[in-house]
Amino acid sequence: MNEATFLTMTRAQGFTVLVSKDRASSLLAQMVLLNRILSEINDFNIKAASTTLTEEYKTKTVAALSEDLNTWLKNLPAHMHDTPSNLQSYASQGQGQLFVTLYLGYYHYGQMLFYRFLHEDVRSYTPRTHFYAQQCKEHAVRLCEIIYRSEEVPGCDVLYSMVGHVLVIASTVQIHTLLFGDEESVVRARARLEKNFVILTKLRALWPTLDICMERLQAFHRACRSSVDTSFCMDAWMVRFLVEFANPISDKNGVERPWALEEIGIC
Predict the structure, then answer these.
(1) 32: domain range?
(2) Would 179 be classed as within a structural domain?
(3) Has residue 9 been placed in a domain?
């Protein structure tokens, strides 16, 4: 049921209260729908990295999953759209963090689906790959921005550990813009990286396990310094980087090494 309805129920009402049959207004129900799409995105990325798939299959699968995300967003009631006024409204109901979490999922799943096109767009430009690469960047930017807004609106700040992982992925997309974007977009990407680093450092103070996230960001940064041409390639290493967020990861060349925060060079 709608969270507002649930939170206003009392013992006296019990199960006699009239509950709307509308399921679309439940934030938790929408999260369940999104998680089903994420499962398919993860399965596709893993399958694409471990087996040889035809271009036709990959094209159809990405198009179908993209449409699933678009349909989910289109079917949301207007009061659940990602707008500053809706965030304020949910915050006033004590559900601001849940609202932010919902959109962190949506934007993260989008960047996961379209991430492969960052490499393809640079290597062999086509209207299709460029469109999907821009979709990845848009999802990553929106993910960063909703985290920033969550810190500005009382009662909306999201401080659970998974935020660290999705923000690391979004930060690597900003690194792509630093390497391949125009002058104006580079300035904005660098500002986001600096802000993301501050947030990650704050989260790491709350969740020591996020040391792994910082190590993974370091490994990615070293991969970019080693070979810009292959660092965004959706190979087995990249899939592990995107999916296995709780596990340490070796350097892309297979060399393990300790990390230091100052090596990132964005703070």
Answers:
(1) 25-78+86-264
(2) yes
(3) no
CA-to-CA distance for 10 and 82, rounded, in angstroms?
30
**What count of other Cβ atoms lies within 10 Å of the Cβ of residue 224?**
17
CB-hemisphere CA count at 13 Å for 186?
A: 6
Spatial separation of the C-alpha atoms in residues 115 and 97, rounded to whole Å: 26
In a domain, 204, yes or no: yes
| DSSP 8-state symbol, 125 | -
The DSSP symbol for 246 reads T
* 207-243 pLDDT, tens digit each: 988 898 888 888 888 888 877 777 888 888 888 888 8
Nearest CA among 226, 227, 223, 225 for reference residue 237: 223
- Rounded to whole angstroms, how far apart are CA atoms 54 and 107? 27
- Residue 4 domain flag: no
Number of domains in the chain: 1
